[in-house]
Write a structure and sequence with these properties.
This protein is 55% helix and 3% strand. The chain is mostly helical.
């Protein structure tokens, strides 16, 4: 009959646990660097999409034929749609990277919580922690709790919904806000032809659009101001 190894003591576990974290900082740093590169690529795609879309709208307004009958506009529209799809894929890639980073850290937290539960150690109660006998070597360093306010989306690529992900994720405070809803840019948007419009761009859903407007387009605020000036 094979004998099972005895469970680790608190000191033995902590020593092994600290050693297992040796590569974690470099793995997290590498993941954050990859995430940063993906974010830079997304920003480039977003700016290119916006510029080409604005150019397309102006060309469509000047065209003497419907946009669907103009070969140059059709090709431009297809290119814009391709850029848009690439940007969406990059967003999904960023979410996947963030989820993997979260799971990388969360696995270590779960392992620590389970072992502390087995040993009867309550990290939230420093008095009880002092009373608990830990047979760690005298030269070992004190461990700080790995618990904290760390949150991240845990949805899988197959089950997440982009709208809920956008709502739950923290927005970069430097990201410009647009539209009546005062949200960041996402999805299809239309630009107000009033150069002094303070909101500039509007989400289709917020202004009741389903496709690019033909001719000049002004938001409700600018339309009202123009009527008042007459």
């Amino acid at each position: 009959m094979m004998s099972s190894n005895p469970p680790l003591t608190a000191g033995e576990f902590l020593e092994e646990y600290i050693e297992s974290l040796e590569n974690l900082p470099s793995e997290v740093r590498q993941g954050l660097e990859e995430l940063g590169r993906a974010d830079a690529q997304y920003c480039d795609l977003k700016e290119s999409y916006r510029a080409h879309w604005k150019k397309y709208i102006k060309s469509a307004k000047r065209s003497s034929v419907p946009a669907s009958d103009d070969p140059a506009l059709v090709a431009s529209r297809l290119n814009i749609e391709k850029e848009y799809c690439s940007a969406i894929k990059k967003v999904d890639q960023k979410i996947d990277m963030a989820s993997r980073l979260y799971e990388l850290i969360n696995r270590q937290i779960i392992r620590l919580d389970e072992e502390m539960l087995r040993l009867g150690i309550d990290i939230q109660d420093p008095i009880e922690l002092k009373k608990t006998h830990i047979d760690a070597p005298s030269g070992s360093r004190d461990r700080k709790s790995l618990k904290g306010p760390f949150t991240a989306p845990r949805s899988s690529p197959s089950s997440r919904k982009r709208a809920s992900a956008i709502a739950s994720m923290e927005i970069d405070p430097n990201e410009p806000l647009y539209c009546f809803c005062q949200q960041v840019s996402f999805g299809d948007m239309v630009g107000c032809d009033n150069d002094s419009c303070d909101k500039e761009w509007f989400h289709y859903g917020c202004v009741g659009l389903t496709e690019p407007p033909i001719g000049k387009w002004y938001c409700e605020t600018c339309l009202a101001n123009m009527k008042n000036r007459k």
